[in-house]
Amino acid sequence: MTDWAQVRADGFAVPAGRPVDELVTELSAMLRSPDPQIRDAQAYSTLATWIGNGVLGPAELRALGDDMIGRFADSEIQARTFAPLILDSIVSQGVFEPSWVPPFERWYVAEEDLRGFDPKLGWLHAVAHGSDLLGALARVQAVEPVQMLRLGIGRLLTPTEYVLRDLEDDRLGFALAVALTRQDLSEEDAVGWLDPAIRAFGTLPAAGFRPEQTNTLRTLRVVYLLADHGVRLDEDHPNVQLPHRDQVKSKLLDLFRTATPYYF
């Protein structure tokens, strides 16, 4: 086994005398580890750094992406939730395969273990990690932005007993706002994805809001904030304004009036 702690200490320099594909195979296996020091501090940190630094070529990135897609059906929660983080890094480097999208969509809506942090397993963050990939895919021209918007609202409205925490709602709200910055998004699609949420709040609950309703409201408030102020897509450029900013804000206000009429 490679001394990955030393690799990290050396600034993630690629170990000499080892084929990169062999090292990537080792790191990929470590991403399934229940030990957060192995999975997060060593495997993920190294892979994300190497991907960002261009250590892996397009063919290697596609092979790694295919490997991560298979993780969405893994029996271990940490294996499932670290797959979208690696795919986010790959897609953000400009490597994308359309076949990656359906397995991600199926997993993201269906995942039942929404824990953010676990004392033994460390960060799991299915919603947040999935939202990072959703946001990356929303910037790919080959992906319809409304597809990602519908995926995000589908995730939010899926029944759950878990109330989001650890800024998961902020991460998903940002990803949805990224999709809304797409210039090819029609006005109809820019607001139509919110219809299921409006229907979900058509009748105010007598026995308290369901967790998924709370999650939806909190996340969409983030979307409203970003619609109002713009979305920071790049550290070196000013905030990007939504092409249908006013329409999105108006639709969100309709939803908020339905769910929380005492605000207005």
Describe the structure.
The protein is mainly α. It is built from 13 helices and two strands, in the order H-H-H-H-H-H-E-E-H-H-H-H-H-H-H. It has helices at residues 4-9, 20-30, 36-52, 58-71, 77-92, 101-110, 126-138, 145-157, 168-180, 187-192, 195-200, 211-229, 245-259; strands spanning 117-118, 122-123. Strands 1-2 form a two-stranded antiparallel ribbon. Helix 2 runs antiparallel to helix 3 (36-52), helix 7 packs antiparallel against helix 8 (145-157) and helix 12 runs antiparallel to helix 13. The protein is globular, with a radius of gyration of 19 Å. The termini are far apart. 39% of the residues are buried. The mean pLDDT is 96.
Question: How large a portion of the residues is in β-strands, by DSSP E?
Answer: under 5%
Taking the alpha carbons of the first and last residues, their distance comes to 61 Å
Q: Main beta sheet: strand number and arrangement?
A: 2 strands, antiparallel
Q: From N to C, what is the helix and strand string?
A: HHHHHHEEHHHHHHH
Total strands: 2
Structural class: mainly alpha
Question: In what order do the strands lie side by side in the largest sheet?
Answer: 1-2
- Low-confidence parts lasting 5 or more residues at pLDDT below 50? none
Mean pLDDT: 96
Helix content: 55-70%
Shape: globular
> How many individual helices?
13
- State Rg: 19 Å
